[in-house]
Amino acid sequence: MQIRRFQNEDAEAVSALIALTMRTTNVKDYPLEMLEQAIAFLSPERLIERSSWMHSYVVCEGERIIGCGSVGPYWGKTDESCLFTIFVDPSEQGRGIGRSIIETLEADEFFLRARRIEIPASATAVGFYKKMGYDHKDGLAAQDDEGHYKMEKFR
């Protein structure tokens, strides 16, 4: 397993990985119609555009991309950052890949410069993020309009 920075030519595979994970794993917590909107939003073109202002990573096993994640500034702030699009292929979940992605993101300069890091977490991932040291923002365990739980960690 290798973790490396996202390259534009990874966009199709990463978008497909996100779609597969949402349709397989996240469908347990969200209606399919809602997930399809999120899948459409995270198109290959959008992933390339987002990688221009955040640091995105992929996890590869051989030539196959089995995980992804990104870290970037929180609304342009230099003392706050945000983790985005953390996904692991459903057939590979439970192997520690998600933990490796978080460790990689937490070693990135966008994380290291921040005193606070936020994650817009899916209901599916809240337990995982809690294990990684994140907690509900302001102690509020409520979904926002997009179906996310705002979670945060202070450094």
Can you walk me through this structure?
This protein is an alpha+beta fold and 155 residues long. It has a single domain, classed as Gcn5-related N-acetyltransferase (GNAT) (Aminopeptidase, 3-Layer(aba) Sandwich). The chain has helices at 11-24, 32-41, 44-50, 97-105, 109-112, 126-131, and strands at 2-5, 55-61, 64-73, 80-88, 116-121, 135-136, 149-154. A 7-stranded mixed β-sheet has the order 1-2-3-4-5-7-6. The relative contact order is 0.15. The mean pLDDT is 96.
Quick rundown:
The chain is of the alpha+beta class and 155 residues long. The chain is 32% helix and 28% strand.
Features:
alpha+beta, Aminopeptidase, 155 residues
CATH topology: Aminopeptidase
- Please give the radius of gyration in angstroms: 14 Å
Q: Identify the CATH homologous superfamily.
A: Gcn5-related N-acetyltransferase (GNAT)
How many beta-strand elements?
7
Unreliable residue runs: none
Give me the secondary-structure category. Answer: alpha+beta
Shape: globular
**Sheet bearing the most strands, described?**
7 strands, mixed
CATH top level label = Alpha Beta
Mind telling me which CATH architecture this is?
3-Layer(aba) Sandwich
Element-level helix/strand string: EHHHEEEHHEHEE
Total number of helices: 6
Helix residue percentage: 25-40%
Mean pLDDT: 96
Report strand order across the widest sheet. Answer: 1-2-3-4-5-7-6
Any idea how many domains?
Answer: 1
